[in-house]
């Protein structure tokens, strides 16, 4: 909206309110920068509160996971993923980063993330934590098996017993 302020309106403001043109320009520029700046990432506590509110309202879904992951909000992604599959933060991090792609595929399947989106989840989450997101042929076969064999419920059960 700041960019829409016409020169005529700027002139009117300067004349009517006795504001120096350079002060008005500086104020408009500062307002534009604050509007365009991306919000700071949520703290862990605010992220937990957000996830709890979404879950309580029945709005915590796979789409939310993908959106925050694409935005680079990995902590929020992990908190929401943990909530969706009902595991603690230590467990979700082991699933995502320590045991290879099969547990990630099981977790994705359990929350309704499609096979075609699995690679995005695997790659972005790993890259965000400085890990190499490579999958070899055998691991790719394991991932394919997870998505072709297990229902959401079965994937969650396997994930919890692994």
Please bin the fraction of helical residues: over 70%
| Estimated radius of gyration | 23 Å
pLDDT average, as an integer?
A: 87
pLDDT < 50 stretches: none
Number of helices: 10
How many beta-strand segments? Answer: 0
Count structural domains. Answer: 2
Please outline the major beta sheet.
none
Task: Indicate the overall shape.
Answer: elongated
Return the string of H and E elements. Answer: HHHHHHHHHH
- Give the class from helix and strand content and strand pairing: mainly alpha
- Strand fraction band? under 5%
Can you tell me about this structure?
There is one protein chain. With 162 residues, the protein is mainly α. It folds into two domains: 2-36, no CATH class; 44-161, no CATH class. The protein is 73% helix and 0% strand. The protein has helices spanning 7-17, 21-36, 44-56, 62-70, 74-85, 89-97, 101-111, 115-128, 137-149, 152-161. α5 (74-85) packs across α6 and α7 (101-111) runs parallel beside α9 (137-149). The longest helix has 16 residues, at 21-36. The radius of gyration is 23 Å and the shape is elongated.
Provide key terms for this protein.
10 helices, mainly alpha, elongated, about 160 residues
Short description:
With 162 residues, the protein is mainly alpha-helical. It has helices spanning 7-17, 21-36, 44-56, 62-70, 74-85, 89-97, 101-111, 115-128, 137-149, 152-161.
């Amino acid at each position: 909206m700041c960019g829409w302020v016409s020169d005529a309106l700027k002139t009117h403001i300067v004349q009517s309110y006795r504001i120096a043109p350079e002060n008005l320009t500086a104020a408009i520029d500062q307002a534009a920068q604050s509007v365009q700046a991306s919000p700071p990432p949520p703290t862990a506590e605010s992220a937990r509160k957000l996830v709890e509110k979404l879950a309580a309202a029945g709005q915590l879904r796979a789409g939310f996971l993908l959106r925050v992951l694409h935005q680079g909000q990995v902590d929020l992604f992990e908190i929401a993923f943990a909530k969706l599959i009902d595991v603690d933060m230590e467990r979700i991090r082991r699933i995502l980063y320590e045991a290879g792609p099969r547990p990630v595929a099981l977790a994705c399947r359990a929350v309704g993330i499609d096979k075609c989106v699995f690679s995005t989840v695997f790659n972005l989450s790993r890259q965000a934590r400085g890990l190499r997101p490579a999958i070899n042929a055998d691991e790719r076969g394991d991932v394919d098996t997870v998505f072709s064999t297990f229902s959401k419920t079965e994937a969650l059960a396997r994930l919890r017993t692994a």
